[in-house]
Write a structure and sequence with these properties.
The structure is a single chain. The chain is mainly beta. Among the domains are: 70 residues, no CATH class; 138 residues, no CATH class. The chain is built from nine helices and 49 strands.
Amino acid sequence: MAIKVKFSFIFAFVLILNFSNAQQKKALSFDDYDHWKSLAKQKISNNGQWISYEINPQKGDGYLYIYNTNSHQLDSIARGKQAIFSPENDFIAFTITPQADTIKALKLKKAKSSKMPKDSLCIWNLRNGQKKTYARVRSFTVPSKQGNWLAVHFHKDTEKNKREHNDSTAQDSTQISKIPHKNSPSQKTKATKDIKKTAKKFKSEGTQLVYLNPTTGDSIAFEKVTRYFVPKYGDALFIVQSVGDSIEETQIKRLNTHLLHTDSLFHQSGKLQSLTASDKAEQLGFLFSPDTGKIKTYRLYHWSQKKKELTTVTDTLHHHIPDGWSASSKGRLWFSEKGDKLFFGTGKRPKEAAKDTLLKEEKVYVDIWNWKDTRIQPMQKKNLSKEKDRSYMAVYHCKDDIVTQLETEQLPSVSIPFKGNWDFAIGYDKAPYEKASSWNAVFAQDIYTIDLETGTKKIIQQKVSSKYSFSPDGKYLCWYNPGDSIWYLKNIDQNKQITLSKKLNIAFYDEINDMPHSPKAYGVAGWSPQSKYVYIYDRFDIWKFDTQMKKEPLNLTQGLGRKSNTQYRYKNLDDDIIYIDESEGILLSTFNESSKNMGYTWFKNGKLNTCLDESSYISTPIKAKEANHLIWKKGTFTNYPELYHSTMDFTDETMISNTNPQQKEYLWGHIQLVDYTALDGSKHQGLLVTPENLDPSKKYPMLVYYYERSQVG
């Protein structure tokens, strides 16, 4: 009896203490929302030793945090943003933005953009801890794959800045000398200022760019730079300078970062539009127009280090693209991964618009729709600007000096899979089914292959209306047919088609679909090396299909997903890896539909090893490129999704962020998963959210929220 009394006393004391704590906490107000912070832009260095992330409020100034995984030291930088680690792990570069209050005050005064404070750049040497800051930075770029160089492009200096930093600005050793105008006066005359005429000088919009190596201390400055390009491996830098006296002249240079030598590749009167280079900086492609008017026709140029020459790929007369067409400034300009192809856009040559002689009030605007149109009027209006800016993809074969038009007005949608390494492109034609899609909601398309050298197109499958996947080597097309709920596989070269899932008594479509159309498939997880197998999802598990059909389909996750009501999904931790290699082990995310737990499981040697399984939200991990380190976010209703660091098996996890420490000062709430039975006898689940200061003896109004199949009560 004494024990019961003692327990009751302690229980009552705890209730009083909790009530007292609740009374001391504040209720959230709208003013608090502006100061509530969020964590984003988390990154990890290639060697896994350094982690960076930003924590920013809804309004105001935030912080950049840098964490050392070896020493566990955490540093913060006020207003730091856009952090990038160098590929060699030698430094981290980030911008420091002006104070938010300062920007707001100047905007209220309607200050000109030239008067607004600019971002600064900080470079932090991770080897020795030294920091160096540069003011008035427009942009900066670090090679993504290799190298320790960094390009810093500055804003144009004001007169005040020029006086303050006159001695610190490097001279442009390659500045073009001024060209004398033929009408410039050679001697003074007594003519009035109104009669005296001089040539109008061209004012360059270019500004200073500095290419520097924070590790060695080397740096090279260029003036009047308008554009620049840093290739992935950092072997070179390409810059565009806007120079000239009375008219604009464009100059392109290449800096060899190993020899610290600069070569001039191009110099001509006119304007450059786009610039790109191959990954190893051995080739350059750019669009340039010598036209001085507002309407410009662009030419495509190609430079090769091997050929040591500049080639005009397309001009106003080129027999490999349609008549009246030219290179388009609206298209994407890029090299294939191997560097043997240069992809670019083409389009109808722009023309001067006819002079408008009508006043605005004299014009009448109407929308005209014909019942034969394949698109309904709202869709036409939505896509109007896109259609006006449309370009059509073409490819230049760098070694053979051949241009092939890929997209046409008849086949305007073409994709280049797997970084342009295939010999063919993929074309999509929606036209035969576009009109019917406005009433049956089936968005089907015919799929073609297009030979990159000849432009010859060949249809490989008609009326594909659901998920599909090409093997990374281009041998196979795998797609799902909603009509018979079967996955198919086609050998593209042999034009041979087989069924994959027909014999399996498993639903590969959305089992709980309640929409007025055929359910969609769960999709393809990926392909094995040499495309021997294709991995396909059902609702819970992952299936492994032999592309030669020599082996029976295998449930890779051993049916454990369906047995436990758990979804298994493949997570690729390296964007450079295009195959699923079971021998290396594969990471699978898990989500239990009953408990709502999330987690991760490693699959290796035919076994599933659960590493993480919690009643929490868990984000997709980010892996260090060259080390077995992971970072991810984890959170619940009561705990903000904080950033964690661990090894590959999720052991030794360490929480390295604390985003909203002020939350403990406020009344929050509790959440619980509730199972209930509807009036029709069906079983359902809901989330019951209650306030922290709930008094169980009182009645409260309850808000019930439903959206399609989702319900939260």
